[in-house]
Amino acid sequence: MGMPVEFNTMIVTKGKEERIEENIFRLEKEGYRIYPLDIPMDVRKTKFGEKSGTAEVQKLEWSNGRTGITYKLTSLHSTN
Amino acid sequence: MGMPVEFNTMIVTKGKEERIEENIFRLEKEGYRIYPLDIPMDVRKTKFGEKSGTAEVQKLEWSNGRTGITYKLTSLHSTN
Amino acid sequence: MGMPVEFNTMIVTKGKEERIEENIFRLEKEGYRIYPLDIPMDVRKTKFGEKSGTAEVQKLEWSNGRTGITYKLTSLHSTN
Amino acid sequence: MGMPVEFNTMIVTKGKEERIEENIFRLEKEGYRIYPLDIPMDVRKTKFGEKSGTAEVQKLEWSNGRTGITYKLTSLHSTN
User: Fold this and answer.
1) Which Pfam families would you find in this protein's record (chains A, B, C, D) (predicted)?
2) Contact at 8 Å (CB) between C77 and C44?
């Protein structure tokens, strides 16, 4: 009877993000997930990988067992 | 730094719902709110009023400090 | 990196509750779970069973991947 | 009818922590708050202050409108 939800404190893209606008991206994930909105958060390509940038989540959508995450990339972390 | 969220276990419409389709409605509320999805839930017009029906939330959208709730009314509670 | 949490809208005891005081009980469950506090909620012995009473959760404790739920049984649902 | 909860992604002590054991501290806060458990998290003395260390939350307790947070300080951030 319970509803499982996952709290997340960073965005892990796994390279599945879609560019919506210049620095706005959208990502879809399995399950219902909560990311703090409007707060700077680390972005990584893989869970244990390097930080690739900083973003703020602008929108979360839950339906059909999936979460849509729209985020604004505010800075890129270059590793050169 | 924290993000306030409100857990809700029933839908209180305050008469602000919009009909999207036959038995599908959408409601917008201030703040970020969690309603269990895909679970039968009471619908009321006012917080302390009578139950007006039963619904299942199909979609939640969080953005700009507001929550959009799309629900399917599965039964109406007639009080005659 | 995410933390799974389960939202619950009723208490399912599976007969594992321990009586702490007269009408105060404590139940331990696997995983991290959220129950609304200080709100009347249905109590059932099994997920799909009959309602056995009404309770209010007074305390939640999360540690070591488990949730402790202390609740006050406010009414018993007799089925005679 | 909703229950407000605050998601937190860092520990802000405001100097109100109590030492329980060597590197174990306990903090009490107003309201019901969620901190990810068993995950390294920044500790700050004030919301906009410098990071003072890293900790992992070991236990959360919710009751009477308050949250008890027990955390293990895993590293101290010296600013010399």
Assistant:
1) DUF2584
2) no
Token pair in block for residue B45: 């017009």
* Ramachandran angles phi, psi of B40, nearest 5°: -60, 135
Report DSSP state, residue C9.
Answer: S
To which H or E segment does residue C4 belong? Answer: strand C3-7
Among A1, A32, A58, beta carbon nearest to B63: A58
Contact yes or no for A23/A72 (Cβ under 8 A): yes
Assembly ipTM: 0.85
- Chain C interface includes D70 (CB < 8 A): yes
**Alpha carbon distance C24, C63 (integer Å):** 21
The pLDDT of residue A79 is 60
Partners of residue C24 in chain D, C-beta under 8 Å:
none
Superfamily (CATH) of domain B5-76: Hypothetical PUA domain-like; domain 1 (2.40.240.20)
Q: What is the pLDDT of residues B53-67, one digit of tens each?
A: 999 999 999 999 999
The architecture of the domain spanning C6-76 is Beta Barrel (2.40)
Task: Extract the residue ranges of chain C whose pLDDT is less than 50.
Answer: none
What is the distance between the alpha carbons of residues D11 and D35, in angstroms, rounded to a whole number? Answer: 8
- Is C48 strand, coil or helix? coil
Q: Are strands D51-63 and C51-63 parallel, antiparallel or unpaired?
A: antiparallel
Residue pair C10/C41 in contact (Cβ under 8 Å)? The answer is yes
> Minimal CA–CA distance to A39: which of B7, B67, B3, D11?
B3
Residue C61 touches chain D, beta carbons under 8 Å: yes
